[in-house]
Amino acid sequence: MYNVTRLIHTSDADSVVPDLQAFAAAADRAVVQPTLPGVRNGGDILMHLRFIDDAQWDAVAGELTTILSRPAVTHVDGAQYRGTPEAAGQHGQDAVYRTLLLRVVPGSDEATVKRFEDDLRLLPRYVPAITAWQLSRVECAVGASPWTHVFEQEFRNLDALMGPYLMHPIHWAHVDRWFDPECPEVIVRDRVCHSFCRAEAAVLGR
């Protein structure tokens, strides 16, 4: 699947969301929702689109560019990438979709990057509140940084994201060393985009 994520900063979300949602009908699967309190560099609107392939995306990409060129849109971060989601459980009515855009520092050797990716993949094993997830390398980056990775999850509810996930020992005692400038293993030094929203339907489910 070909994935398109956009984190949209806007001065008037109410005027932008309806057109983005109408545009998203062109995708195989999509979510376009206002972000929830607590995002970090996550924008006011989170949009994630899944297409069968990049040709399907290329056929409609210009329309999205037009929408995002409006004066009400003040900044956009995003990425395009391929990937297949991993599902761990069923989607619930209170589900939350979360995405993390990050950049591994240039010059990081491939073996180190793979260890970093393997550590991220441990999180769904230890946090059962994650119902689906996907880790992908970026093919095309948009915005404040040349993002290298996108890490996405669906959670049973917002409490599961803010509590069992972010506060889990596997997170702060193992994975965070890759992000902590005081740790010698740090390889993520730029700002990250941590964004999440309500998900009325499964975003990552197959």
Low-confidence stretches: none
Shape descriptor? globular
Helix content: 25-40%
Biggest beta-sheet profile = 9 strands, antiparallel
Proportion of beta-strand residues: 25-35%
Distance between the termini: 10 Å
Give a structural overview.
With 206 residues, the chain is of the alpha+beta class. It has one domain (2-198): Alpha-Beta Plaits, CATH 3.30.70.100. Helix content is 26%, strand content 33%. It is built from six helices and nine strands. The protein has helices at residues 13-23, 54-58, 61-68, 110-126, 158-165, 169-172; strands at residues 2-10, 29-34, 45-51, 73-82, 86-87, 96-102, 130-142, 149-155, 193-198. Strands 1, 2, 3, 4, 5, 6, 7, 8 and 9 form a nine-stranded antiparallel sheet that branches. Strand 7 and strand 8 form a beta hairpin. Helix 1 (13-23) runs antiparallel to helix 3. The model has no long low-confidence stretch (mean pLDDT 90).
